[in-house]
Design brief:
Blueprint: E1 8-13, H1 17-25, E2 31-35, E3 41-45, H2 64-77, E4 83-88, E5 92-98, E6 105-110, H3 119-129, H4 135-142, H5 152-163, H6 180-188, E7 194-196, H7 201-215
Antiparallel strand pairs: 1-3, 1-4, 2-3, 2-7, 4-5, 5-6
Helix pairs in contact: 1-7, 3-4
Length: 216
C-alpha cells in the first residue's frame, strides 16, 4: 500500500444475500451483492462517492472511511445482523463494525502497518461477532502490535483470516488494497453476483416484502 493507491472498500454482512438484498436497496447506491461463505454476503460498491483516493478530502470528496462507515451503520440499524466495512486508501486502512443501534467500533492502521487505534476496539469487535474470547482475541491483538515487516494490507488480511473461523470466505479477486473499480470488475465476473440498483421507494418496499414472504 502506498501513497498512490486508489481507495477501495467492501461491506461484509453477516447474513445471506436474500436477507441483505432488500436492506441494501435502501442505500440507493450502485453495488454488487454476492455470497461470501457460510452465512455471509459481500457488497462491492462502485466507488464513485470517494473517487480521488487519498486526496479525496482535499478535493472536496468524502473520504472512503467516512462514506462506508455511514453505509455500514445504515445497513445495521435496518437489520438484525452486523455489518463490517473494510476500507483503504493511500494513507491508511481499517474497518468499522456496525451492529444495531450500538455505537460502531473501528480500528485504523497507517499505510506502513503502524497501529493507530485503541486495543479495546479489537476486544469489542470479537465480542460483537461471537469470536473466541481467547484464541481469536489473541490473533486480533497481534494486529495492534508494532511490526516493521507488516503493512496495512497484511493487517487487513490478518483480520479476514480470523473471520474465516466464523464462515467468511471472500470471492476470488476481492482482496484488500485493490482499487475500487477493479474490485467491482472482479465481483461482476462472478456468476453468483447480482446488481443492487436503487429503483425507487416502490421497488424497495416490494423487494423487502418479497424477502419477508420468502423467509416464511
Amino acid at each position: 500500500m502506498n501513497a498512490t493507491s486508489p481507495a477501495g472498500a467492501l461491506l461484509l454482512c453477516r447474513a445471506e444475500p436474500e436477507t441483505v438484498r432488500p436492506v441494501a436497496h435502501l442505500l440507493r447506491e450502485r453495488m454488487l451483492l454476492a455470497p461470501a461463505g457460510d452465512g455471509w454476503s459481500v457488497l462491492v460498491p462502485e466507488g464513485k462517492p470517494w473517487q480521488g483516493g487519498a486526496d479525496a478530502s482535499a478535493a472536496g470528496v468524502e473520504p472512503v472511511d467516512r462514506v462506508v462507515a455511514g453505509w455500514a451503520t445504515a445497513l445495521a440499524v435496518g437489520s438484525t445482523w452486523p455489518v463490517l466495512a473494510l476500507w483503504w486508501d493511500g494513507d491508511r486502512a481499517g474497518y468499522t463494525l456496525a451492529s444495531g443501534f450500538r455505537r460502531p467500533v473501528g480500528y485504523v492502521w497507517l499505510a506502513d502497518g503502524t497501529p493507530a487505534g485503541e486495543d479495546e476496539a479489537m476486544r469489542t469487535f470479537a465480542e460483537r461477532l461471537g469470536l473466541d474470547p481467547v484464541l481469536d482475541v489473541q490473533a486480533l491483538e497481534e494486529l495492534t502490535r508494532p511490526d516493521p515487516d507488516v503493512d496495512a494490507r497484511i493487517r487487513l488480511r490478518g483480520l479476514l483470516a480470523v473471520l474465516t473461523r466464523i464462515g467468511l470466505i471472500l470471492p476470488p479477486g476481492l482482496d484488500p488494497d485493490t482499487p475500487g473499480d477493479r474490485l467491482y470488475a472482479a465481483a461482476d465476473d462472478r456468476p453468483e453476483a447480482e446488481p443492487v440498483v436503487w429503483t425507487g421507494w416502490r421497488g424497495a418496499v416490494k423487494a423487502e416484502l418479497d424477502a419477508v414472504e420468502s423467509s416464511r
